[in-house]
Amino acid sequence: MSTRAVIQLKKTSNRKIEDQVDVLPNGMEYGYALGEWCEEGWEAFDEITEPLGLHSLESFLYEPDAADAADILGTVMKDAPPQIKPLVRARYKQAQRRQTPWHKPEDALPTLQALMNYYRLQEEEDFENIEMDLSMYYSLLTWSAQLGDQFRIRLKYE
Asked: Is 80 exceeded by the pLDDT of residue 106?
C-alpha cells in the first residue's frame, strides 16, 4: 500500500483538479513523494520553514479522524431513536468542529516556494521527486487562488 498526499479543494470538484494535473516528468502522478515523507513525519520541512516564520506544511494537512467521527455520527443519527437524536446531533456537531479547517491558498504559497527553493538545490533523486510534488502543489494552489477556492492536503491510501 502506498500513500499519496493530494490537494483537496472545497468548492472545485476532484475532476476539475485532475484536468489541471499533469503527469510528472518522472511519469508518476503527483503526491507520492510527499505521501511517503508524511508517513515518516514532515519535521524536515519544519526545519526549513520555521526559521523563515512560515506556516508548516503539516498545518494544512486534513485530519481524517475527526472527519471519520463526524461521518459515523451522521450515519448513526439517521437510524437513532427519536429520544436520543438530540444527543447524537450534539456529538455530531462537536465532531464536525474538530475537523481541520480549510485554508486560503495564499497562506501556503510562501511555504511551498521556500521548500521548492531548498529542494531544487539538493542533488539526491528523492529530493527531485519532492521538489516536483511541491511544484505541482504550487501550481494547483495558484490556480485555486484564482478561483477563490480553499484547500487542504489529504492523505490517500492506495
From this structure: yes
Find the mean pLDDT for residues 80-100: 66
Coil, helix or strand at residue 3: strand
Q: Assess whether pLDDT exceeds 90 at residue 104.
A: yes
With 0-12 / 13-18 / 19 or more C-beta atoms within 10 angstroms meaning exposed / middle / buried, residue 39 is exposed
> Percentage helix, strand, coil, to 5, in the chain?
60, 10, 30
AA identity, residue 21: V
pLDDT over 70 at 33, yes or no = yes
Domain ranges across the chain: 3-61+102-157, 64-97
Phi and psi dihedrals of 64, rounded to 5?
Answer: -70, -25
Nearest to 96 by CA among 79, 78, 71, 77: 71
Rounded Cα–Cα distance for residues 96 and 91 (Å): 9
Q: How far apart are CA 104 and CA 89, in angstroms?
A: 29
pLDDT tens-digit profile of 46-72?
889 999 999 999 889 886 655 555 556
Distance CA 144, CA 140 (A): 6
> Do residues 44 and 126 touch, judged by C-beta distance below 8 A?
no
d(CA 118, CA 52): 12
